[in-house]
Every structure is written in structure tokens, then in C-alpha cells.
Amino acid sequence: MTDAKETVEIKRGLKGVYFERSATTFIDGRAGELRYRGYSIHDLAEHSTFEETAYLLLNGELPTAGELNEFDQRLKAARQLPTPLFDIIRAVRDAHPMDVLRTAVSALSAFDPDVADNSAASTLDKGVRLTSQVPMIVGAHHRIRNGLEPVPASPTLGHAANFLYMLKGEPPSDDAAKLMDTDMILHAEHGSNASSFTARVVASTDANLHAAITAAIGALSGPAHGGAAENVMKMALEVGDAANAAEYVKRKRGNREPVMGFGHRVYRAEDPRARHMRAGVEKLSKEMGQPQWYEILQAIVEAMRPYSRHGVNVNVDFYAGVVYHLHGIPEDLFVPIFAVGRVPGWTIQVVEQMANNILIRPLTHYNGPGPRAYVPLNDRI
Ligand SMILES: CC(C)(COP(=O)(O)OP(=O)(O)OC[C@H]1O[C@@H](n2cnc3c(N)ncnc32)[C@H](O)[C@@H]1OP(=O)(O)O)[C@@H](O)C(=O)NCCC(=O)NCCS
């Protein structure tokens, strides 16, 4: 949009604006390509683990076996929450889990001895600690709000399996753990999305990692960003049967409402992360004798086909919600699961920002009233 009088070009929503360089994530929205540190998301989803991918994101290279083992030990050793944090979680137990998570991560800053140390080494260490602590908060809150005691972290389970264990109180099947692990790999990092940009804005003021991640959690909680998976499941329940999908989409588009799990600021082709969760939904819904979920989702995709020409395709969240549902995870935990996977991504974005920092402070173009004389209160009518 260009203002005729002053030739100010306004890029609403910062669409298409490059504000920095990053060596972490490559996205080609037209081709539907995503790479972390040069490695295709497909290779990582199929062959890597969350731990290995987190190491890659934080350190720039895939680890050797020894390095991976050492990193895994650090993650496991960091599976601890300060005792007062459980009281804080109890005090806000009835809030949405994202609000609880934001509050608890903010509170963790009071207990981290290195909170104010913004060196790269310390920020990476804190990122490792938060990677382990965020799933513990989500798990502990879920137990507490259901009147149950939090489950102590397992000293042996992998990251994804331990998260499911802390949520449910029993170790997950290998298949369930693998699917959650893949989900976390897919969500680990995604360039300058709204929450990572938020984290960078906060870091650009020389604030610390806890402040940046607290703010990022706030940004992620909205339905245009992390909340989509929750809304996709609500949509699937509302549609109820594949035969109703076309009518549902017609009604939504008639009201000019977005269909959840479709569209993306960057991708014009299908979000490359979607196919891995689609495969998960197909397998899981058949195995669990609930094939209707896969059928409903595919019928919605079919009904949305005309919009694909205009670059509106499924995104990663379209299939993720049904996977969580089939695992018996309630809808309000879908966004927190996204957050659990995203901590390494937020951390590395903050580290990059701090390494070459500049205050992020764009402009708004004033279009309010011109200069006016101040009228004393008693003279106003
Ligand atoms: C993600 C999202 C906010 C991106 O928004 P954006 O980059 O600002 O894109 P726009 O809203 O400008 O959309 C561009 C066009 O595609 C259409 N469109 C975008 N998302 C759509 C959706 N989910 N369903 C139907 N049409 C959609 C818009 O109506 C618009 O059409 P128009 O030019 O005729 O008005 C948006 O696609 C959306 O709300 N999606 C649903 C929520 C979701 O799944 N979010 C998770 C993202 S990972």
C-alpha cells in the first residue's frame, strides 16, 4: 500500500519483508521446501530424532554418536522443575494451558542462576534447560488440573516418550512415541514466524532468553499461529462425516471465513511438513478402528481443491490435531505440544539475534488528526 501524499510504502503484516539473515532455516514457499541447516525436513522427519534435530539446530551440525549421547544426557539431567513452580502452576491451574505455560516459563526466570547472562554459551545452555522444562510444565499442569499428582520425569525415556509419560502416567507405545517425536521435529523451527519474530524483538532490546520465550509463547497461542490444530479438530468433529465436508467448506467460504489448517503466509505449495502427519493420521485412524477422521480430513482437502490454485493448501496443523486426538490428548493441549517442539527454534533465533544485535523498531505511518489546540477540561463540551 502506498500513501499518495507522502509516498510511504506500508507493508502490512510485514508481508514479504526480509529484516535479517539467518543460517538456520531455509524455506522456499513456492516449491514447498523446508530445510534445517541444509538438511531436508523429509530426511529429518524420516531418519532423525527430536534430540538429534535439536542438536543440529542449536549447534549447526549433525552430532556424532558421542556428541548426541552427551547432548541427550544434558537434556535428561535438565528434567527438573523448582519446587515452588508447582505451587505457581496450582494457583493458575484453571487457565488455558498456554497461559499456564507462559506464566510458568516467566516464573522459571526467578530460579535460573544464569538468567541475566546473555552470552551465546549461557543462552544455549538455558535453551537446553527450557527444552526439557517446557514439556514438564505442560505435563505437570495437565495432571494437576485433573486432580492427579505430577509424574516425575523418566531418567531413561527419549524426549517425546517422556513427554507422553508425564502427561499420562504410563510409558507410551513405540509407535505413539515415534509419531510424537516426528511431530516435534516438524515443529522445531520455522524461520521468522510470528512467535520467533516476537522472540527476536524481545532479544533485540537485550532482554534475556526467558523473557523472549515467554513472549514467544504468547504469540504462539493465537489461532492464526499455533491455535490452528485445536480448531481443525473442532472442525472435524463439527463436520462429523466425510459426506458433509463439501457443504461445510461452501458455508465457510460463503461467510468469507478461513478454513482451519489451510493457508500459510509463506507456502504457496503444500506445507512440506503436512505429508508426514497425513501419513500418521492415515495409519493411526485405521489401526484404531476410526477411519472416519482420515476420511473427513481428505474430504475437506478435496472440497478446498479450487483454492489450491490460489496457493491455499494444507499446512502442518491440518493433520496434527487428529493425531493428538487419536492419542487421547485433549484439544487445549495441541498448542502447548507445538511449544514443546519449538523451544530449540526459539532459542537459536534468539542466539542469532544476540550475535549481531540491532534493536528491532519499525515505524507506523501516522494517519490521525492534524495539529490541534489543547482545550482545558472545563472548556470541553
Ligand atoms: C495462516 C494465515 C493467517 C495466513 O494469512 P495471510 O498470509 O495473511 O494470508 P491472507 O489472509 O492474506 O490470504 C490470502 C488469500 O487466501 C485466502 N485464504 C487464506 N487462508 C485461507 C483459509 N484457511 N481458508 C480459505 N481461504 C484462505 C484468503 O481469503 C485470501 O484470499 P483473498 O486474496 O481472495 O482475500 C491464514 O491462511 C489463516 O488464517 N489460516 C487458517 C489458520 C491456520 O491454519 N493457521 C496455521 C498456520 S501454520
- What coarse outline follows from CA principal-axis ratios? globular
**Strand count:** 3
Low-pLDDT runs of 5+ residues are none
- Report the CATH architecture of the largest domain: Orthogonal Bundle
What is the CATH homologous superfamily assignment of the largest domain?
Citrate Synthase, domain 1
**N- and C-termini, Cα separation:** 38 Å
Assembly type of the chains comes to single chain
Write the layout of secondary structure elements.
Layout: E1 25-28, E2 33-36, E3 39-40, H1 41-47, H2 50-59, H3 65-77, H4 83-91, H5 97-108, H6 120-145, H7 159-168, H8 174-187, H9 194-203, H10 209-220, H11 228-239, H12 245-254, H13 274-287, H14 292-303, H15 305-308, H16 317-326, H17 334-355
Antiparallel strand pairs: 1-2, 2-3
Helix pairs in contact: 1-8, 2-17, 5-6, 5-10, 6-7, 6-17, 7-8, 8-17, 9-10, 9-17, 10-17, 11-16, 12-14, 13-16
The protein binds coenzyme A.
Coenzyme A binds next to loops.
